[in-house]
Design a protein that fits this description.
Distance between the termini: 91 Å
Strand content: under 5%
Radius of gyration: 32 Å
Shape: rod-shaped
Low-confidence stretches: 10-16
Number of helices: 8
Structural class: mainly alpha
Order of helices and strands: HHEEHHHHHH
Strand order of the largest sheet: 1-2
């Protein structure tokens, strides 16, 4: 038995009979759902369904079972997967818990649909901007003849790479000639 398992077993024994809430209040139910959502939708990593079961178990244990959870995330994770969770489930309003889990599932689906629609909207905007840029460039190049392109290529070959100073100087020279 590892040190962590020993600690968890001791915590389970020391806890004795915890007070278990049969039915959560509306506020606790909303906080349960929001905590699960915040756990499975991470700003940095996005949607993390692998934490859904853990988040539900954690909230059952803390909101129904009033279990004090350790600060260490690994210990907290391991504690949610021990017999204490099943013991708490025996004394909670399963209809309410099922409704909460259904609400979480619907809320996850809704959020994923919104994220998908937002990504599709952004992709459409980007596509439209690219099409507009292509159209603008096409309009500009209509006035450039093949002879102009040859002259440009010849000038580039003759004078080498341009820097800002040369471009500005050429512009000023042209301006004073006019």
């Amino acid at each position: 038995m590892t040190n962590m398992e020993e600690k968890m077993e001791m915590n389970a024994v020391e806890a004795k009979e915890p007070e278990i809430t049969y039915t959560l209040s509306a506020v606790d139910m909303l906080n349960f759902v929001e905590d699960v959502m915040a756990t499975v939708f991470n700003e940095e990593y996005g949607y993390m369904p692998e934490f859904l079961e853990y988040a539900i178990r954690f909230n059952v244990m803390t909101r129904y079972g009033h279990v004090e959870m350790p600060e260490d995330i690994q210990e907290r994770y391991m504690l949610t997967y021990n017999d204490r969770y099943r013991q708490i489930l025996e004394y909670v309003n399963i209809d309410q818990l099922d409704n909460i889990i259904d609400a979480i599932d619907r809320k996850i689906e809704h959020r994923l649909d919104l994220e998908h629609a937002d990504a599709e909207r952004k992709l459409n905007e980007m596509t439209q901007k690219m099409n507009d840029a292509v159209e603008m460039i096409s309009g500009l190049t209509k006035e450039i003849s093949p002879e102009d392109i040859k002259k440009l290529a010849s000038a580039l070959a003759e004078h080498g790479p341009f820097d800002e100073g040369k471009i500005v100087q050429a512009y000023l020279d042209k301006k004073t000639e006019s």
